[in-house]
Model the fold of this input.
Amino acid sequence: MTNYPNIAVDVVLFSYFEKALNVLLIQRNIAPFIGQYALPGVFLKEDEMADNAALRALKDETNVQIAYLEQLYTITDLHRDPRQRIISISYFGLVNQNDFTLSDGNEDASFVEWVNVNEIPTRLAFDHGEILEMALTRLRTKVQYEPIGFELLPEWFTLTELYDMYRIILQKEFDRRNFTRKVMSYGLIKKTEHKTGGHVGRKGQLYEFDLERYTELAKTGVYFEI
Amino acid sequence: MTNYPNIAVDVVLFSYFEKALNVLLIQRNIAPFIGQYALPGVFLKEDEMADNAALRALKDETNVQIAYLEQLYTITDLHRDPRQRIISISYFGLVNQNDFTLSDGNEDASFVEWVNVNEIPTRLAFDHGEILEMALTRLRTKVQYEPIGFELLPEWFTLTELYDMYRIILQKEFDRRNFTRKVMSYGLIKKTEHKTGGHVGRKGQLYEFDLERYTELAKTGVYFEI
DNA sequence: TCAAAAGTGTTCCGAATACACCCATGA
DNA sequence: TCATGGGTGTATTCGGAACACTTTTGA
Done:
């Protein structure tokens, strides 16, 4: 099936590891904006839904399961691409902090990289800087009323890891004891039988997200709040 | 300029009057879905931004200022239109409760109507029922943390009118004194020198939305909450 | 004078906040 | 034994929720 030459699907994919929030960027090796960083993207195919195009854009670049994906915004500005008018349907996604590998690039990209959101190049290709800004705002807002933050962590995590992640995403300091109490009060995470190890210091209790409990709560419209 | 035959812009426009939340629907007089209710919509032109297309879709049907307009969602399902694949970029808008007239219809629509959201026909054309559902959810959510509700009221309004509107939009009963206190505490509305009249009972103090105060608050990131 | 709409204060309870020390472990 | 990371309780404050009667006006 052929592509729509006028509709692109671009994705802002976030990951969290080593106490940093990262976004997946590629370096373009074709015109326009050759050499500049950009978001992964593809042209929509004529028989393809945009969600699938977003997944396809990522499949070229990473080998991981996408834990969360939602539509972000559709930009219809006339001159955002110097070649011709291209409409961008943008997506916002999260991946689990599991081991995963990035590919070496493809025909569009000389390489693919996780970039710390605090170290994003000032000029990205097209209007991708604005799209990224929008995605960051959405992530920071949404993480506060829906438990999507868990999607960025591995299956088992300590309360400290969860706490650190929220601090880093929200760029805000808050009290660890109050955070713990609040998180536990929702009953959305449950103890596992496992503990951390392989590091100095006391072993940590590992928890997991209780999906069952969440879907139950979601039905009655109760919202997670940090 | 020609249209993109594969991209539609559809709008869910809300109004509030006579203690009811209403949505603008047209009755189609062309195929497909002839005779059924649908959302106002147009095909995107090749040199037109989607926001402008949304305004154009409304200009055919109403003679009022659109007080608020934001993008809702882009639907890319393959078979939502029986003729061919058409992508819909949907918008969500609000109009002031001023005097305004609806037009008599145009080539696509035999008539245009404000329909109470509690009396929406069960089957709308295309997937417009789902779009409308999404818009209602967005309105009900957003009205609780951004002061967009004011866009539905005339310039001057009483606290009772404001209170009734929130009750009706949110379909929830709450205490009028608590509501008043909360609304006043933001300083977002200010007394005018005018009072209601022409009805039985005590004259009511008329208030207006303080836009200046709002933009000031918005800068520092303070949010209105009901 | 009565019906209709407008206006207004206080108490109570629960949640958010502020705050600091002990525990377990491996090097 | 010490450096590192994990774990936990209480007092105070503030905001949300519950609750009912008086005032003004025009018919």
